[in-house]
Amino acid sequence: MIFLSKAKPITFYNLISGLSFNAFVYFVMHYDSIILGNIEYWWFWAFYSIGQVISDLVMAIVLFNRNELQAMAKK
């Protein structure tokens, strides 16, 4: 439990929130299409498609920018 006492960087919280969003949206899509058997198009499918891509891009950009800033600070 020692690792829980250390301060977490802001990117950690960004990744956790992005991955939680992805997992939640995936669960809702799974429930709708597999459990309920819905095959008709509705607005949530568009939200899922766009939200998944945007969430992944934001997480990648934040990680890249953080690593670049750290590398520049070390020079």
Strand content: under 5%
- Overall shape: it is elongated
Order of helices and strands: HH
Task: List low-confidence stretches.
Answer: none
**How many beta strands in the DSSP annotation?**
0
* Secondary structure category: mainly alpha
Rounded to an integer in angstroms, the radius of gyration calculated over CA atoms is 17 Å
Helix content: over 70%
Average pLDDT works out at 81
Number of helices: 2
Instruction: Report the major sheet.
Output: none
Distance between the termini: 34 Å
Describe what this molecule looks like in 3D.
This protein has 75 residues and is mainly α. The protein has two helices and no strands. The protein has helices at residues 10-35, 43-74. The longest helix has 32 residues, at 43-74. It is elongated, with a radius of gyration of 17 Å. It starts with 9 loop residues before the first helix and ends with a helix.
Quick synopsis:
With 75 residues, this protein is an all-alpha fold.
What's the structural blueprint in terms of helices and strands?
Elements: H1 10-35, H2 43-74
Helix pairs in contact: 1-2
Provide the descriptors you would attach to this structure in a database record.
mainly alpha; 75 residues; 77% helix; elongated; 2 helices
